[in-house]
Write a structure and sequence with these properties.
Layout (H helix, E strand, L loop, with lengths): L2 E12 L2 E12 L3 E5 L6 H8 L7 E6 L5 E4 L11 H9 L3 H9 L6 H4 L7 H14 L4 E5 L7 H13 L3 E5 L3 H7 L2 E6 L2 E5 L3 H36 L6 H13 L25 E12 L2 E12 L3 E5 L6 H8 L7 E6 L5 E4 L1 H4 L8 H8 L6 H10 L16 H14 L4 E5 L7 H13 L3 E5 L3 H7 L2 E6 L2 E5 L3 H27 L7 H41 L3 H30 L1
Helix pairs in contact: 2-3, 2-5, 3-5, 6-17, 8-9, 12-13, 12-14, 13-14, 18-19
């Protein structure tokens, strides 16, 4: 297993902030790593260091001679007037047929491939960029928040692409579901230290919390012992007959040290607006039409949302989810029909058109004071500001100097400190890290009001959605099923599309052949042999899974570095064997 990229004893800081503190990490071929850390911890800075765009103050980067990095950039690389196909050919230097073949993996065809690329939505442009990456044949992908603003279908396509990509990847993301589906290992950056965990994000978060709890218990025991020794020393050091014992105890006391618990301060906590629960219909739409003066996005919308529901608005990018939300909060006028909110409804809005229009004369703390409940204490204001990364001197920053992400977080903080009994949220998980998304999900779950929201974060959707409303093909309807069933239906559509694409590709490459009785009997024998091998593989996969689970449990409690390294090597060997078995099972199943 070759090491493609290695960071050794790396140190870097910005002002007083330590980004890397004697940090080490190795990225090896064929391993996909999910990279997590609090907002502001320095993840993007580390990516720029690895790309050679920023220098280290100390340490070194070792690159394998065959390293080819593919980096998904956020900027717009397109030329005005060119099609997606033109861009792919220009960027990669590959022939038209090859560019079209790779584009097909991301469902880029027809006008999406041959029309103006700048006319595509952000999600479709990301598909074009991913196709361009693949055409360069990298052996290490670096993706920085690749799921931001991607709809569910594109996220699933990206997951399938990464699962089939047989090279290494380093993926920065706050989307737990995406990392779980694509990455076998987890890397965390915290207080300048890099920690590599040989497992997915879920087990890592559990391991991290268990280790912290273990350290807390050990520290409590050490502190109790320190107090006991201190009392003995103070009582006996003046007595000649016990002075030597006191001196011995003093030496013991010097040796007793508590361990630092590696946690980011402060712990994220959010609270939703405190409102009284209500009964009945919160919103009623009848034959509603939404859109713009020159373009109707959807019509014939008839639906009701009850008080207390947390209604998830779902659908592909460009179908009209944001248009619907903007109409519901009176930012856009309906084109026709009726829309009526219930009596006593007070709406709080989180959306891009809101957080780009904040009063730039206010400071952060002034904005929160102005928009919060009258009974909100200064301590609650500071706690909410801190939860969303406005700490110390940052609370006195003017709105006009805040970045887009900072304005979004400020808008979220003010909304949660208010008294709205209906929250309308457009992508509330964007700009938030894993821990803050968890805190937001917990706050909304405990909220007694009504929530209408859209999000591409599947973890957030699963945590809070009570019902699903689908925007699709010019209509808006209640989806008769929960979010998991909607997710399954989209995954099936993507799977069917990929199966059809592979079938068409295979048909174009394979000439038809004649079959006779002998061929038929041979096919039956081959099929039975394959079925037997599949059953044996399923047993083997189950056994390997169980062995890996047991080793991971041992890893969580092991404190000796040598023993932990042995367990790590055993887990890696098992993962290699498991991957081969799963690939063979998949190959036989598809055949």
């Amino acid at each position: 297993m070759a090491v493609l990229l290695q960071l050794r004893e790396a140190s870097k800081r910005f002002g007083d902030q330590i980004v890397l503190d004697n940090a080490d990490v190795s990225l090896v071929d064929d391993v996909k790593v999910g990279f997590i850390g609090r907002n502001g911890s320095g993840k993007s800075t580390l990516l720029r260091v690895l790309l050679g765009e920023e220098e280290l103050e100390q340490g070194e980067i070792v690159r394998h001679p065959s390293l080819r990095i593919g980096y998904l950039r956020q900027h717009d690389p397109f030329v005005a007037g060119e099609s997606a196909l033109d861009f792919l050919m220009r960027d990669s230097g590959q022939p038209e047929w090859r560019c079209g073949e790779v584009a097909g993996q991301f469902e880029l065809k027809g006008t999406y491939l041959e029309g103006p690329v700048k006319a595509l939505s952000g999600g479709w442009q990301t598909r074009v960029k991913l196709a361009a990456l693949l055409l360069h044949e990298p052996n290490l992908l670096m993706l920085d928040e690749p799921t931001n603003f991607l709809d569910l279908r594109t996220q699933i396509l990206l997951e399938h692409f990464l699962r089939e990509f047989r090279q290494a990847a380093l993926i920065v993301s706050h989307d737990r579901a995406f990392l779980k589906a694509t990455c076998s290992e987890t890397l965390e950056l915290s207080r300048g230290k890099l920690t590599m965990f040989p497992g997915k994000i879920g087990p890592f978060l559990e391991f991290r919390e268990e280790r912290r709890e273990h350290d807390r218990r050990v520290n409590a025991t050490v502190i109790a012992k320190q107090k006991q020794l201190q009392r003995f020393i103070e009582k006996n050091r003046a007595n000649a007959s016990t002075a030597s014992q006191a001196k011995s105890k003093a030496k013991q006391l010097e040796r007793l040290q508590t361990s630092e618990i590696q946690t980011d301060e402060p712990t994220v906590f959010m609270r939703a607006p405190k409102v009284e629960p209500r009964q009945g219909t919160a919103l009623r739409c009848s034959e509603l039409a939404i859109g713009y003066p020159d373009h109707c996005v959807a019509d014939g919308i008839t639906l009701e949302i009850e008080h207390g529901q947390r209604a998830a608005i779902v659908g592909d990018n460009g179908q009209g989810k944001t248009t619907l939300l903007r109409t519901l909060v009176h930012s856009l006028d309906p084109l026709g029909g009726e829309m009526k909110w219930g009596y006593g409804v007070e709406i709080g809005t989180y959306a891009q058109h809101v957080y780009t229009s904040l009063d730039e004369r206010h400071t952060v703390i002034e904005h929160l004071e102005y928009n919060s409940n009258a009974d909100t204490t200064k301590q609650e204001l500071l706690a909410m500001a801190g939860s969303l990364l406005f700490r110390d001197d940052q609370i006195n920053k003017k709105v006009k100097v805040l970045s887009g992400g900072e304005r979004a977080r400020l808008c979220m903080a003010a909304l949660l400190l208010g008294n709205a009994n209906v929250l309308v949220l457009d992508e509330p998980g964007n700009h938030l890290d894993v821990e803050t998304v968890e805190a937001l999900a917990e706050a909304i779950s405990l909220y007694k009001g009504t929530v209408v929201f859209t999000s591409h974060d599947r973890y957030l959707m699963r945590r809070i959605a009570t019902n699903v409303i689908e925007v699709r093909d010019g209509s808006v309807k209640n989806y008769f099923g929960d979010y998991d069933s909607y997710l399954e239906s989209v995954e099936k559509q993507v799977d069917d599309g990929e199966r059809d694409r592979r079938a068409q590709s295979g048909a174009s490459k394979t000439a038809p052949s004649k079959s006779n009785g002998m061929d038929y009997r041979q096919n039956i024998r081959d099929q039975r042999k394959a079925e037997k091998e599949i059953k044996n593989l399923e047993k083997k996969i189950a056994r390997l899974d169980e062995e890996k689970r047991e080793l991971n449990k041992q890893m969580l409690t092991e404190t000796k570095p040598d023993a932990a390294m042995t367990l790590f090597e055993q887990i890696k060997a098992l993962e290699g064997e498991l991957t081969k078995a799963e690939e063979r099972w998949l190959e036989l199943s598809e055949a």
